[in-house]
Specification:
Number of strands: 3
Strand order of the largest sheet: 1-2-3
Largest sheet: 3 strands, parallel
Order of helices and strands: HEHEHEH
Strand content: 25-35%
Distance between the termini: 31 Å
């Protein structure tokens, strides 16, 4: 239900931002930032060890940057998604 509420809020928001930051936990990639937020740059912050699948590689590559908040997580993501810069 929270995603529906967030989606409604951002659909109504027609502002354009310099930067939008998506916050990812567990297996979640918040695509509403990609699809509903107008911003010059969009970044994804990953805060937990994840089980992202290879199908998520395309979604991850749509962000201007992906930030892993720990060295261990960064190493894991670099290994799983070699073509994406972390």
């Amino acid at each position: 239900r929270q995603r529906e509420i967030e989606g409604d809020f951002f659909k109504k928001n027609q502002l354009c931002y310099d930067v939008a930051i998506a916050y990812s936990t567990a297996d979640d990639i918040p695509v509403f930032v990609l699809e509903q937020i107008k911003a010059t740059k969009k970044y994804l912050f990953i805060h937990q060890s994840t089980a992202f699948s290879k199908q998520n590689q395309k979604t991850l590559s749509r962000f201007d940057g992906v930030v892993a908040v720990s060295d261990n997580l960064c190493k894991k993501l670099k290994k799983e998604f070699a073509i994406i810069e972390f």
